Amino acid sequence: MASLIASPSRSLIAATGQDASLEVEPRVLPAWPVLTVLWGYPLFWLVGMLPFASVIMAIPMLALLIMRRRILIVPGILPWIGFVLWMIPSALMIDQLGRGVGLGVRFSQFLALAIIMVYIVNARTSLPPKRIFNGLTFIWMFVIVGGYLGMFFPEVQLTMTIGRLLPDAISSNDYVSELVFPTLAEIQTPWGAEEPFVRPSAPFSYTNGWGAAMAVLTPIAIGTAIGHRTARAMWVLVIALVAAIPPAIATTNRGLFLGIAGAVAYVLFCLLIRGRLLAFFWVTMLGLAGAVILFLSGFLDGIVARQETVDTTEGRGNLYAETWERTLQSPVIGWGAPRPSTWSEIYVGTQGAIWNAMFCFGLVGLFLFLGMIVLGAVRTFDAPNLSAVWIHASVVVTVFLSIFYGLDRQLVFVGIALAVLLREKYLGNSSYWTPQPTPFARAKNEE
């Protein structure tokens, strides 16, 4: 059944169950706005517009949605829309131009993601799951290429970008400068280190962004390859996974390792409770093989060496405590933007998406933020096939990564994947979301 919320210009339909009548679309939305965001990723990066790619393409998406006049909203989308709207009153706490610019950039990006998610739900005819996930897999491969660029040319910074056209008052802002003049790697020389740590980051500003993107996109790439059901797709996947090992090692990124390990563990859990024992066996073997390769490669040794010179674990713990204490000073609308720490050079509200949502937008903002990623993961827990389970694992991994990664750039990947999963589940008649009964259910039916 569906509930109808009427407006003078169009109908807003919130799908709350399986209703075949929702399949009727008054106007077929074109695929090119979303595909431009996905397949145009390298070009947007080269010109320094990668952080604004979704914002730019959200404009024609919004126009097309308005012309369509009938918009479908599936469960799981509204919390993110509410989160974006809640950012507006939080702007009252902005006390500096630089912080206002940063909030404006983030607001435009998060609003664009809300528009993209709604657009994908309503563009079911032109944007089937495989078409979208192919694009996300392409981005995954480009991130791997960016890792090699960071390894081979760590001191390079892209300067011939759109940033040259911005006023100095804007481009001189540290946050904006990092976006429009991207570097290929982070070069860190902490006190006591025998040599600098060269950590690939392209196409992102920070190495943690590279690791978070790989942790989020790798399960999607695996699920996409499985969904193709061809030997060619699996060979391409295997080659890309092997190619990703050297830059992954160079990043010495703990979150990347934990994210991938978490995705594999989650998939194994899903396969076990569904009775997919053969698939459980093969995923276990592949997971163990990957762990052995990482161990022999020296990946863990690199993490230990960096941890001995930079104790980020203890520093994060203290920063989280300060974030919580200062959030309680403005618990409803937050502070609008990160603030300098009282004891560290790292800003409060920057070391994790959930801490950022809580500090910048208050406890209400935190509740709405978690409503999208946590409830989104819960709503799509019954992913019915192996391809969908792997893609759903990326959402689960995001919940975990949000504790210690900012995820501003990576949320668009998760939002797109989650929009597809929610659409295919709630709109019904999906060739992708086809339930596959477990052996226990089949035995019951036979009785």
List the helices and strands and how they pair.
Blueprint: E1 2-6, E2 11-15, H1 32-39, H2 41-46, H3 53-68, E3 70-73, H4 78-90, H5 97-122, H6 129-152, H7 168-171, H8 174-180, E4 185-188, E5 197-200, H9 207-228, H10 231-251, H11 254-273, H12 277-297, H13 299-309, H14 312-327, H15 353-379, H16 386-401, H17 411-426, H18 439-446
Parallel strand pairs: 2-3
Antiparallel strand pairs: 1-2, 4-5
Helix pairs in contact: 1-3, 1-6, 3-5, 4-5, 4-15, 5-17, 6-9, 6-10, 6-17, 9-10, 9-11, 9-16, 11-12, 11-16, 14-15, 15-16, 15-17, 16-17
What can be said about this structure in brief?
The protein has 447 residues and is mostly helical.
Strand content: under 5%
Q: Strand order across the biggest sheet?
A: 1-2-3
Tell me which oligomeric state these chains represent.
Answer: single chain
Helix content: 55-70%
User: How far apart are the first and last residues' alpha carbons, in Å?
Assistant: 32 Å
The biggest sheet, with number of strands, parallel, antiparallel or mixed sense and barrel status, is: 3 strands, mixed
Structure characterization notes:
Helix content is 63%, strand content 5%. It has helices spanning 32-39, 41-46, 53-68, 78-90, 97-122, 129-152, 168-171, 174-180, 207-228, 231-251, 254-273, 277-297, 299-309, 312-327, 353-379, 386-401, 411-426, 439-446; strands at residues 2-6, 11-15, 70-73, 185-188, 197-200. The strands form two sheets. Strands 1-2-3 form a three-stranded mixed sheet. Helix 3 (53-68) packs across helix 5 (97-122) and helix 6 runs parallel beside helix 10 (231-251). The longest helix has 27 residues, at 353-379. The protein is globular.
